[in-house]
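Q: Entry one of two.
A:
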Amino acid sequence: MAVEFYDVKTRQKVEIEDKNVLKTTFLTKNGQTRYGVRGKTDDGRMLTKFVSKADWDKMKYEEEKKA
């Protein structure tokens, strides 16, 4: 199964294989947590797709390591 992302650079939807997808969270300036998935394209760019917390909890992808 692949995840569909929108590639802003090419202006089209692309599908990225599960092995290249990671779960991640983003902390906003006002302290809110946003949930998303990040996928790596064939040319090495990272694409981001925001999802609901319920969908994020259901996903079985590895979590992105924060530095």
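Q: Entry two of two.
A:
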Amino acid sequence: MSDESPRWDPALIPDPTAALEAQLLVFAKELGEGYQRERERAQHLERALGDLRHAYLQTVRSLALVVEAKDATTGQHIERCRRYGMALLAEMGMADENREAEFGFLLHDCGKVGIPESVLNKPGPLTAAEWRVMRTHPIIGYQLVADIPFLRTAALVVRCHHEMFDGTGYPAGLKGEEIPLAARVFSVVDAFDAMTADRPYRAALPVAAAVEELQKMAGTQFDPEVVRVFAPLSERLIPRTAA
């Protein structure tokens, strides 16, 4: 009997390595095609979500314009506050966690639709009774939008945008981090825009002067950390030549 092992005969037994390579090639091709299909579906979904978000934003802008038309002093205030606020959240690294905040920035004063025009546009100082009426607008606004699913986070900005860091604001007297971050951000950009925009009763302040005022009120009206981040950002939002 021969001691030689039987040789592999390709005519009788298929090469197992070649068969495995062929299976791997088929698997790789199917995997690549599956990945491409999933990528295309993800891109389609991302476009659909982008379109939906754009539709939401346009709807919210339309709602905000109703308030802007009623209050003669606002001008482009709400759109600037949206732009400044989202830029500030991005600078803080918090934009992704607060994507719905821009809806709240646009709708912050939506409760003013429930305030009589005799109070809202009164040319002189408000009486104590009129101030009590005016200070209901955050609650009115909150009640208007809180039950709309895509505005629930934004509703917190509407409700809390007049709260102050030291707890002396309204309507609930919230203090420090009890106030939602988006509302603390809004309070800074709202005051900044009010100071740097022309009003019927005064000219706009320079950017540096407005930032100085924010810094004076850091810790009382405003969150000190939000003011700290906003100070250098402000020069990029409004070029010095425009101040």
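A: Comment on entry two: The chain is about 60% helix and 0% strand. The longest helix spans residues 16-70.
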